[in-house]
What we know:
Blueprint: H1 3-7, E1 9-12, H2 18-34, E2 47-50, H3 53-56, H4 59-64, H5 67-77, E3 84-94, E4 120-126, E5 143-147, E6 163-172, H6 181-184, H7 191-196, H8 214-218, H9 234-248
Antiparallel strand pairs: 1-5, 2-3, 3-6, 4-5, 4-6
The structure holds 2-oxoglutaric acid (AKG) and fe (ii) ion.
2-oxoglutaric acid (AKG) binds near residues 101, 106 and 136.
Amino acid sequence: MTALERDGGVIIEGLLCPERLARFLAWLFPLLDAAPDCQGDFYGYATRRLSGLIARVSACRELAILPLILQLMDIMLLRGCREYQLNLTQAIRIGPGEPRQFLHSDALMFPVKVPGSETMINCMYALDDFTEGNGAAMKAGSALIYLGSVIHAGGANRTGQPRTGVALSYCLGWLRQAENHYLAVPRELPERLQRLLGYFVHEPDLGSVDGQGPVALLREPQAEPPRFTEFLPEDAKTLLAEARAAMRND
Ligand SMILES: O=C(O)CCC(=O)C(=O)O
Ligand SMILES: [Fe+2]
């Protein structure tokens, strides 16, 4: 069992080097400065949230595909799906005076339990120093990776300064994503990122367009209409091929 499973969360210190952190802040903070406070007893009233970070903050594209994070997701989420996806990108700036958030687990948005697997894993990157006074504890540039099932809450901010983090969560590839990336992101992105955003077919046959994988649709249209194709796991392909061959011999 990994430390993440045993403890429900792990902090990776210094995951963002100072240069990457500075680049992130330069893009994100002006957007947060201009954003209105949220309105909601869960989201808060002295808290600002900003989604669509893949489109808005180019530095977030690197963050979404950090090799160490994807290796962790491979271990954790491929237990419950054949390919996982980005669930949500959200900057969270908890302002002075915001009380402690309602205790919750982030995976509550998915009304299912999957035997042997989490439905989602969250990565919270600290962009400011998180302190006991402002509601949490880790240094800017560190990341807390925690299970979707873990009960937690943003702590009260009792200081005069805001506390800013960025949450990127990943979920099983056959679930609906919290963020509607299809409407939020531009069409031109690296294919790895497109797949991670949900432009893929989860085998068998979940999420195709005209019998094609959705990434094909994002590219140039083809002259000939492509053949309607099936998307099957390897073991199903083998079984079907054998069954078809046996029928030919009937
Ligand atoms: O920003 C935080 O400290 C946590 C926020 C949180 O848990 C949430 O909004 O789901
Ligand atoms: Fe949460």
